[in-house]
Structure formats: structure tokens, C-alpha cells
Design goal:
This protein is α/β, with parallel strands linked by helices. The chain folds into 2 domains: 4-204, 3-Layer(aba) Sandwich (Rossmann fold), CATH 3.40.50.300; 214-372, P-loop containing nucleotide triphosphate hydrolases (Rossmann fold), CATH 3.40.50.300. Helices cover 43% and strands 18% of the residues. The protein has 15 helices and 14 strands. It has helices spanning 11-19, 27-37, 52-66, 79-93, 110-118, 128-136, 153-158, 162-170, 187-196, 224-237, 249-261, 275-286, 321-327, 348-361, 381-397; strands at residues 42-45, 72-75, 101-104, 123-126, 147-150, 177-182, 201-204, 214-221, 241-245, 267-269, 292-295, 308-313, 336-343, 368-373. Helix 2 (27-37) packs parallel to helix 3 (52-66). The longest helix has 17 residues, at 381-397. Bound molecules: adenosine monophosphate.
């Protein structure tokens, strides 16, 4: 059995791993850390939830400790993921360590980031847009950054960051080490890897496929008109925190208002919120101040909120792969979770595509149960709404 002792890590790192209760490396860590410590490039397929963040941060921090001329830049698709990676970085390096970690993301004060960059951080974690901004303003120089991580690379490309990423890569030294992590490895990622990685070691982690954890998936056949009442039913009938996915930013706010009218308090998370607000929403949900978070797909990847018991797909995702990322928000770290999808006639086509995708990822030993729920007999909407409100009120009083 491999343990962290096998990697000859610094005392500080070993202490942090102990504090974090990381007793042994996860599969992605076991496969990536030795290669990365050996200065090789890595092309890894790994999902959020596999422990990929520590798989690249442990070697980076170890290298910075051993060779002070090591500087690492980590490109991530979203601000939330940047914060999460920075948090993991801070806990891994240890609070007393002098290694400076800076986040460079949109939606936050540019001046503050420029001030932070002047302190020559060893690790920069950022989103492509803001990093490019700072490069163009010459507030950021990457000429010493010899360790690059492209995290959730497929997501970055899906979000249209391809040009931005390539522009950033031109500012980096040719002599560097590059680690690319991606949930999927489509042709565009292969092309990127051929262009920017040098003889990368291919790392694959099948064991941590999110579908292998215990996620019970339910499908509710419904109509657009009945969806909301069905949602109230689901909310009242469930214990624990719920992440509800909707299609657009506007719909997150609209659903939040509608639920409020039915005495159900919730939070909305979407890309139009200012960064401070987004952070606060996530914190409030993490601290269980609210039980319900309504989000667009921006929240479907990367977020590590360990206590989500239920994911409700109120609307289907626009990209089928996002379904897997959405439901991966529940049942983290081997726990049990439930995903419910509302499928109205207008979603039927997308649901078929998702089912095909699930079939492709299915394999014999995964615990995957799908329960089709029969249509219920029609009930007077207003009567039902009142009944649900009362039920929710009683439940929240308990
Ligand atoms: P990630 O895929 O990096 O988002 O990590 C998913 C979760 O796994 C996070 O909650 C980490 O704290 C946790 N984790 C990462 N590495 C380990 C490990 N070696 N042992 C236990 N938990 C871990």
C-alpha cells in the first residue's frame, strides 16, 4: 500500500496532511504525485471528487520547498474553483509557511490583486480572463512560472476560454512542467496537450467516476406547468441540503422569489452576482444557514460542498455532460446522495441523450439505481401549494 511517506515530502506537508486527515493518497494522487515530483508532464483524466487538487498541489508545494525558484500558476475555469483550490493550497502548505498564494479572478478588485502580485507570490491561481487582463497591463509577469496546471481543462474550453488560455501560455517559459487535468479528454484537449505538454504521462482514474459512488437517480416525468408543485413536494419530502439546478441566471432568482412566497427560504448562485456575494452565498450554504441553493451550471463543477444530500435537476442541463457534473455534487467522498430530474416533454430529447451518455459510462460494479416515478393524479394546484407550504413550515420548525 502506498502512503504519503513514500514521497519523502517535507515535514510541513506531512503535518498538513495529518491535520487534513488525508491518511493515504487517493488513486489520482498515487498515480500523479510520483510523476510530477519527477519533473514530468501529466495529462490526467480526473473528476472533481477524486482528490485531483492535492494531486497537483502536493508536488508543487514540495518543489517550492526544495527549489525556491519554483513558481506555479494554476488556471481554473471559475472563481469558485479558484477559491477552493486556494483554500486547499493554504491548508496544505500550512498556515505558518511563508509560501504566498494569490488568487487572480474576475469580479474582485483589480488594485488589490496588483498589490498582491507585487509581493511575488509563489503560487497564482486564476481564471483566464483576469490573468490576461493583468498580463496586458504588465501588472503580471509569468517569466519565472515554471510549473503550470490546467485544471478542469475541458470546462475551460467549453466556456470559450481556449484563446485566452493559449494567450497566457505564450507568456510562460518554454522550460517548464505542465499538468493538465480534465474530466474528459476530447480531441480539443488532445490537441492542446500535443501543443503544450512535453511527452506527458497519461494518468487515468476510473475508480473515482462519480457514478460509482452511491447516487440514487430518480426521474420525475412531469410538465412545465406542474414542475413547481412537484418541486415543493420534493423539498418538503426530503431531509438535508438540496442543490437545485435551473437553466438560466434569471430563473435562479425567479425560483428563489417563488419559493419565498411559499415560505421556503433559499439562496441563488449565478454568474451575475458580484464575487463577494457569490462567496457569501457559498459560505452560507456550507454553514447550513440555508438548506436550499438554486444554481446555474456555474455551480455544477468544482464546488466541494460536502454536505449536499440531494441534487434536483429542475431544468435539464444544456450540455449532457453537465448532468454528470451536477449529480457529482452529491455523494461526495463516498457518502450517499440522491439526484432527481424533472423531465417535461420539452426535456425529453435531452434526457434521451443523457441516458445514452450514462449508458456509456455505466459499468457493472457501479451502484446506480434509476427509479422512474409514475405520474401522480392531478390535484388542485392552489390546494396543493397551501398543503406544501404548511408541510414545509412544520418541517422547518422541527
Ligand atoms: P478534489 O477532487 O480535489 O476536489 O477533492 C475532493 C475531496 O477529497 C476534498 O474534500 C478533499 O479534501 C478530499 N481529499 C483529497 N485528497 C484526500 C486524501 N488523500 N484523503 C482523504 N480525502 C482527500
Amino acid at each position: 500500500m502506498t502512503t504519503f511517506l513514500d514521497y519523502n515530502l517535507s515535514n510541513d506537508l506531512m503535518k498538513s496532511l495529518k491535520n487534513l486527515k488525508f491518511h493515504k493518497p487517493t488513486e489520482i494522487q498515487e498515480k500523479t504525485i510520483p510523476i510530477a515530483l519527477n519533473h514530468n508532464d501529466v495529462l490526467a483524466s480526473a473528476e472533481t471528487g477524486s482528490g485531483k487538487t492535492a494531486a497537483y498541489l502536493i508536488p508543487l508545494i514540495q518543489k517550492i520547498t526544495l527549489a525556491p525558484n519554483t513558481y506555479g500558476i494554476i488556471l481554473v475555469p471559475t472563481r469558485e474553483l479558484a477559491k477552493q483550490v486556494a483554500d486547499v493550497g493554504i491548508s496544505l502548505k500550512g498556515y505558518k509557511s511563508k509560501i504566498l498564494i494569490t488568487q487572480v479572478v474576475g469580479g474582485a478588485s483589480l488594485n488589490n490583486q496588483v498589490t498582491q502580485l507585487k509581493k511575488s507570490p509563489k503560487i497564482i491561481i486564476g481564471t483566464p480572463g483576469r490573468i490576461n487582463d493583468l498580463l496586458l497591463r504588465k501588472s503580471l509577469s509569468l517569466k519565472n512560472f515554471n510549473f503550470l496546471v490546467l485544471d478542469e481543462a475541458d470546462r475551460m474550453l467549453d466556456m470559450g476560454f481556449e484563446d485566452q488560455v493559449e494567450k497566457i501560455l505564450r507568456f510562460l517559459p518554454k522550460k517548464r512542467q505542465t499538468l493538465l487535468f480534465s474530466a474528459t479528454i476530447p480531441d480539443r484537449i488532445k490537441t492542446l496537450s500535443k501543443k503544450y505538454l512535453i511527452s506527458p504521462h497519461r494518468v487515468e482514474v476510473k475508480e473515482n467516476n462519480v457514478l460509482k459512488t452511491q447516487i440514487t437517480q430518480k426521474v420525475i416525468q412531469t410538465t412545465q406547468e406542474k414542475k413547481y408543485d412537484e418541486l415543493l413536494d420534493e423539498i418538503t419530502g426530503r431531509h438535508g441540503s438540496i442543490l437545485i439546478f435551473v437553466r438560466t441566471k434569471y430563473l435562479t432568482e425567479k425560483l428563489k422569489k417563488r419559493l419565498k412566497q411559499d415560505t421556503v427560504k433559499s439562496l441563488a448562485l449565478h454568474g451575475d452576482l458580484r464575487q463577494n456575494r457569490r462567496n457569501r452565498v457559498i459560505e452560507d450554504f456550507k454553514k447550513s444557514k440555508y438548506r436550499i441553493l438554486i444554481a446555474t451550471d456555474i455551480a455544477s463543477r468544482g464546488l466541494d460542498i460536502p454536505h449536499i444530500e440531494h441534487v434536483i435537476n429542475y431544468d435539464m442541463p444544456q450540455v449532457p455532460e453537465d448532468y454528470i457534473h451536477r449529480i457529482g455534487r452529491t455523494a461526495r467522498a463516498g457518502s450517499i446522495g440522491e439526484a432527481v430530474s424533472f423531465v417535461s416533454p420539452r426535456d425529453a430529447k435531452m434526457w434521451k441523450i443523457i441516458e445514452k451518455l450514462l449508458d456509456k459510462t455505466k459499468n457493472p460494479d457501479k451502484k446506480f439505481t434509476e427509479e422512474k416515478i409514475e405520474k401522480k393524479p392531478k390535484e388542485n394546484r392552489f390546494k396543493k401549494r397551501r398543503r406544501n407550504s404548511r408541510k414545509y413550515y412544520k418541517a422547518s420548525k422541527k
